[in-house]
Amino acid sequence: MRCLIREWSGQASQAFRHLFITIAAVLSGCNDWNEIELYGQTKEEWLRKYLELPGGIPSHDTFNRVFSLLNPDALRECFLSWVEQIAQRTEGEVVSIDGKRLCGSGEWQTLHHSHGQCLEWG
So what's the pLDDT on residue 61? Predict the structure, then answer.
């Protein structure tokens, strides 16, 4: 996780929580930080099965701040590695990935929307 952070100012577990919630939210169709926050609030009970959330769901401003600290190239490499692991676990079944740049996500930090679906699993 440290390889993703430009300026390290917190614990890896905190950054992981933000990444986990954001990936789940974006894969569920969220398009901006406000929607990601709302997703977290709506799915908080489910998220607590996998994450410790001592302060509850972070605000949209916090998600924005955390992602502004991430190294985009490292994040892309980690995401691609994760997708490759999924492909291995699904024994080569097709995992369709669709994506787009989200409007209004910032001039310097751009948020991309990605959606993945294993065709065999629906």
Answer: 94
pLDDT at 12 over 70: no
Encoding tokens for residue 35?
């929607």
Segment 68-97 mean pLDDT: 77
Residue 106 φ/ψ, nearest 5 degrees: 120, 150
Q: Which of 61, 53, 80, 63 is nearest to 25 (CA)?
A: 63
Buried b / exposed e across 56-95, counting CB within 10 Å, b at 16+? ebbebeebbebbebbeeeebeebeeeeeeeeeeeeeeeeb
> Could you give the dihedral angle defined by the CA atoms of residues 31, 72, 21 and 68, in that order, rounded to the nearest 10 degrees?
-80
pLDDT at 97: 60
For the chain, the domains span: 11-118
